[in-house]
Amino acid sequence: MVSKWEDRVQALREALPSSVSQVGYVDDAAWSGDPSQLDVNEFQLMQYSVAPVAIQSGINHEWIIGNFSGDENLETWLAGQLGAYEIQGFGFGLYLIQDVEN
């Protein structure tokens, strides 16, 4: 399972600037506003896959990894949370978001 996950995340990892040592991480729990809904297994798999970059739950970083099961409200949610941002999609609900105001 880990190697399939790594394959999914590889393009996202390669898109991160080499100078980045820490990123934020949001998933479907962000939309609900309930941090206890964070998918801990996927969070840990993501941490493993992007190491040595450290991930921290939340959007308080210039670079943020998004991992969503659906994206129909993603752009609206991001605009309300970040203001100005750039986003790259990598399939499988994975996104790399840059908070250009951070």
Keywords:
102 residues; alpha/beta; five-stranded mixed β-sheet; globular
Q: How would you concisely characterize the structure shown here?
A:
The chain has 102 residues and is of the alpha/beta class. It has helices at residues 2-15, 28-32, 40-50, 74-82; strands at 22-27, 54-57, 63-67, 85-89, 94-99.
Task: Describe the protein in words.
By secondary structure, this protein is of the alpha/beta class. The chain has one domain. It contains 4 helices and 5 strands, in the order H-E-H-H-E-E-H-E-E. It has helices at residues 2-15, 28-32, 40-50, 74-82; strands spanning 22-27, 54-57, 63-67, 85-89, 94-99. Strands 2-1-3-5-4 form a 5-stranded mixed sheet, with helices on both faces. A hairpin with a 4-residue loop joins strand 4 and strand 5.
